[in-house]
Design brief:
This protein is an alpha+beta fold. The chain has one domain: Jelly Rolls (Sandwich), CATH 2.60.120.10. The protein is built from four helices and twelve strands; from the N terminus they run E-E-H-E-H-H-E-H-E-E-E-E-E-E-E-E. Strand 1 and strand 2 form a beta hairpin. The longest helix is centred in the middle third of the chain and has 11 residues. The radius of gyration is 16 Å and the shape is globular. The two termini are 22 Å apart. The structure holds fe (ii) ion (FE2). The site of fe (ii) ion has 6 residues, from strand 9.
Length: 185
């Protein structure tokens, strides 16, 4: 179940609000300027095959590319036994921005986006079926957790794919990460 949890930058370990009701999640994300929708979850091949994942969602991808101008699509899959899971977690977990929207469709598993919007940090915990677009220029980070499991389709306007500008803000280390209990307000 997709959830939204907010924190204040002055007390980043304390939960301000936790939202799990689907309508409330959608309304909150609209308020924060995050595009969010769902695609049907389709069965994936037992052996990971990026081309087959893209094929399973071909019509949705084509529609999104046509409506939003995305040109480049790839698939990332990280599992608890992925040899680079720690390096991959560390790469995306520091605060950064992109000149491109960060568009992800979770075909499998889960992962958390954290958006730094003014005085608020908004954690969006996404699951299979969720399509999220973090607007270009938004300070954010992504946590796949200590035991990552997800397959995500990524869409980019830029043909270069994932390019991040890191902010060096330590905030991402102060907000509870996946697998770390937060303090209730
Ligand atoms: Fe990013």
């Amino acid at each position: 179940m997709t959830t939204v949890t907010t924190y204040h930058v002055k007390a980043p370990a304390t939960v301000l609000q936790h939202i799990s009701d689907d309508t409330a999640v959608r309304n909150t994300l609209i308020r924060f300027g995050v595009r969010f929708s769902r695609w049907p979850v389709r069965p994936l091949p037992t052996e990971f095959d990026a081309a087959k994942v893209l094929l399973a969602y071909q019509s949705e991808i084509q529609n999104l590319k046509a409506s939003k101008g995305y040109t480049t699509v790839d698939v990332i899959r990280v599992t608890p036994t992925h040899p680079e899971r720690e390096a991959l977690r560390n790469k995306f977990i520091e605060e950064h921005t992109h000149s491109d929207d960060e568009v992800r469709f979770f075909a499998e598993g889960s992962g958390a986006f954290y958006l730094h919007l003014g005085d608020t940090v908004v954690q969006i915990l996404c699951f299979a079926g969720d399509l999220i677009a973090v607007p270009a220029g938004t300070k954010h980070w992504f946590d796949m957790g200590p035991e990552p499991l997800f397959t995500a389709i990524r869409l980019f306007v830029s043909p270069e794919g994932w390019v991040g500008q890191f902010t060096d803000d330590p905030l991402s280390g102060q907000v509870p990460r996946l697998g770390t209990p937060a303090v209730a307000a």
